[in-house]
Design brief:
Layout: E1 14-18, H1 21-47, E2 54-57, H2 62-72, E3 76-79, E4 93-97, H3 103-110, H4 114-120, H5 125-136, H6 143-147, H7 178-206, E5 211-216, E6 219-223, E7 227-232, E8 240-244, H8 273-280
Antiparallel strand pairs: 1-7, 2-4, 3-4, 5-6, 5-8, 6-7
Helix pairs in contact: 1-7, 3-4, 4-5
Length: 289
């Protein structure tokens, strides 16, 4: 069932706050480094033959850096015009690939053939067609419909993608998609083979943390045991929510009463100083100590 959509869209943003200062000190440098590695994997996966092309939304001043890296890897870069019907929200899209094999991807992009463009990005037919259907249904941020369902492997988890943390460069047809999981496994294995073993093992572990996702009025909120991420999403009048139970749990997790936090430690009454003072000063039969 499609939610009731509101007629506005917030500008792109992603903000992260930490469960505690120890959590920030422990995890912020790691998250920044993992996002940088993931960004580099976008074009390295093309150079390695993992997929045909990569399409990135280049930040201001980033295109020249990407072009140099692509050239050194034997690839070429070309600017594209924005296509909301294929990759909504991309303001400065660039395609990276081999000049003799990317023509079909460029044609799919220019003709708004979302399924064909996503196939060039490495998506299996089930994922490409599912994503195309979501776009036709009016979704722009497809995180919620793609992540609905029972927990699957860590690799296809896209909930933290606004922070640059993912092992799958497109939305899967569902969290349990076997084809998406295989590509994510290849992505993670390639990262380890490039000499980033510890980082990509950490990324896989992080993607398997418990996560709670909700969205309302154009703002998405992702809660993990270590950080809370807020980002722009489709503006809806209805609250959308899902949970991923996860299989791993991080150090320096925040404490809290609800999912996905650790309940705060509570001392037993019999272990308090007040209880001990009562034992040291018992009342007599008249109620006097």
């Amino acid at each position: 069932m499609s939610p009731h959509r509101l007629d506005f869209a917030l500008p792109r943003f992603a903000r992260c706050c930490w469960a505690s200062e120890p959590a920030r000190l422990r995890w912020q440098p790691t998250v920044v480094r993992l996002a940088e590695r993931t960004r580099e994997m976008e074009w390295r996966s093309v150079a390695a033959g993992l997929r045909a092309v990569a399409i990135l939304d280049a930040a201001p001043g980033e295109a020249s850096t990407l072009r140099q890296a692509a050239t050194e890897a034997g690839l070429v870069l070309r600017h594209l015009s924005p296509r909301p019907g294929v990759l909504p929200g991309f303001q400065n899209p660039v395609i990276i690939g081999h000049a003799d094999t990317w023509l079909s991807a460029i044609h799919a992009w220019e003709t708004d053939d979302a399924a064909a463009a996503l196939a060039a990005l490495g998506a299996a037919p089930c994922c490409a067609s599912a994503q195309a259907e979501r776009l036709q249904a009016g979704w722009r941020d497809t995180t919620f419909p793609a992540m609905q369902g029972d927990d699957g492997p860590a690799g296809p988890n896209r909930l933290a993608a606004p922070l640059g943390l993912y092992a799958l460069p497109f939305s899967p047809c569902g969290p349990g998609c076997a084809a998406a999981a295989r590509l994510a496994d290849d992505w993670l294995a390639m990262g380890r083979a490039l000499g980033w073993r510890e980082d990509f093992e950490t990324l896989e572990t992080l993607l398997d943390w418990p996560m709670g996702y909700s969205a309302l009025h154009g703002i998405a909120e992702l809660r993990t045991p270590v950080f809370k991420l807020t980002s722009n999403t489709d503006a809806t009048a209805d609250k959308l929510a899902l949970r991923r139970a996860g299989r791993t749990f991080p150090e320096d997790a925040g404490s809290g009463l609800g999912f996905p936090y650790v309940p705060p430690a509570r001392r037993r009454v019999t272990g308090t100083a007040a209880w001990q003072r009562g034992l040291d000063n018992p009342l007599d039969q008249d109620g006097r100590s």
